[in-house]
Write a structure and sequence with these properties.
mainly alpha
Length: 91
Amino acid sequence: MLANVESEAPASMPLPGPDSSGDDLFRMGLLYSTGQGGAPLDYVSAHMLFNLAAMRGSLEAKVYRKELSAEMDPMDVAEAQRQARQWLAQG
């Protein structure tokens, strides 16, 4: 769950707000997918962010989400999708 990631991430690692653009969500997904920029390496959060970015129009996010899905356990993909739905419901 992204809330768990929040507690592990340094204070300088902002979490996406409901008004985040597709590009913002994509960039944050890149950080989680690589473990750079102060983000922990977290494929579930990265997939969730790529999914949300794709929903907000990022074509790059669709490509990265597909590539990441191929590397992930199906249960982790399902968890990422659940987290994306939860994030949308909270927004």
